[in-house]
Protein 1
Amino acid sequence: MARTRRQRSPQAWLNQIFRAGQVAQGNIIRRSMASIQRFASPDALEAEVRRRGFHMAVIGDQFVILCNQTGTIHVVC
């Protein structure tokens, strides 16, 4: 018998991401574009990042979220 995966709402899925221990420690989390598009949406992720006062970058096919609320970020490219 095949298992069925319980579908979560996009907001529930995003909440799960932001409950990770890395978030509580102010670290970085990353998720692939494919998983964001599958379980939520890039717009919903961006809204949640902004709501929490975090910062996000899109690098290749990854969303990289800086889980702190510092006002200054120095980026070297």
Protein 2
Amino acid sequence: MNGARQEPEGPLGAELAHVAAYLDFYRSTLAEKCRSLPVAELRVARVPSGWTPLELLDHVAHMEQRWFVWGFLGEPLTDPWGDSSGAPERPWHVPADRDLDQVVAFLEEQAARTHAVLARHGPEDVAARTGRFAGEPQPPTLRWTCFHVLQEYARHAGHLDVAVELAGGHTGE
């Protein structure tokens, strides 16, 4: 990595095409940061809050699913908080039998769902009043949801950069 990866370059098309390109960029950046680590390091917490690189990658996949599938589309999910162990001191959890390839596959599934949402809707479309926003008087627009998810990815990419650097892996984009 270390400078080899670049942000998407324009022209990228309409607004949601820009969002899709940046989400792809962040997803692949996070996956590559994790792939730069030895397998044992994926489950080592290097920061005081206690999350591991594998847990962070799984978290962003669940986060994306919560916002676009359960949130915007309003589709029911069996376990929308599937990345949570339920323990406040360990908010993210990846079972021991789940490896990096499985987490990346889940992330790619969420990417495909998000691409479909972005292709079929406009930025001013409002989220469903079911699922995550059941009972909400004013669910967010797709534009708001996109910006929220982008800021989560950007923030977590920085977090992962620190953890990967401490573990001896590649940093930067």
Protein 3
Amino acid sequence: MTVERATIQPYVDGVPGRFFYQRYDHPSAAAAEEELGALEGGRALVFASGSAATTAVALGLLAPGVAVAVAEGCYFGTTSLLRRFEPWGVEVVEFDQTGEPPAGADLVWLEAPSNPFLSFPDLAAAAAHPGIVVVDATASSPVLLRPLEHGADVVLHSATKYLGGHSDLLAGVLATRDEERYTRLKEVRGATGSIAAPDVAALLLRSLKTLELRVRRQSETALELARRLAAHPAVTTVRYPGLGDPRAARWLDGGFGGLLSFDVADAEAALRVERRVRTILNATSLGGVETTIEARRRWEGERVPEGLLRLSVGIEDVELLWADLEQALG
């Protein structure tokens, strides 16, 4: 795979070409966007991170006086980032995404499924809403869900997670079918310099080749672990779309993803599990080929139960993972 490292390309007969300056566009980004657009069924843009993509949505699609309805229990970084725009006249409210969005919302922000509570949105109710609908599909990936096909206006990914899949790149993705929104988002990306770097885009292209294989394996293993955790006496709650959520079963295609969360008795019990795992990594983030576990209270505070553990299932053997969880819980 060839990765270009020049930040500039010479003009041809005094005319700037498409890739005249890397801050706006470059060949590796263009190649990754072509692949991602085909996966999502729209036009894609790659960003330096998922948060950079979220910022582009805020700068490109919001204005003073608009109301944003954000899925309750979604990734806490999304809500806190959007609230940074409140001093500029943006109203942010949280709502239960399993029901209808608030009537007065100008933009509806869903997460399918949410992180770390694994709730799944009512996509039909959102599509019927007059506001712009943004779906963060990081945890499902386009292998399992293509929100643009179900009425979403914009789909977002933290490509650091499943799209990258190896915990070795930081990137974000937006995709849309609306040409005007695509242009506005690309203009914001160029103005803010938030495009993914060439080497990152090249790594992302590499990862897309195995995306379906990884996600299918992770989904299969996660479902089995969720079932076993639900029967374990030390576990009080398991959250996973595959455990009987009719909304998830309706919208997800052939699996429920590799992310789940479960509760143990309290914060100390959660820390004991973290310290005892051996095969599973005690680390943050999710979506990689290596399984990770983390007590989320340290980052999210009282918005999550004190004993909540987030488990991102990798591609290891299910029995190896279960043996590690069982001894850690014991």
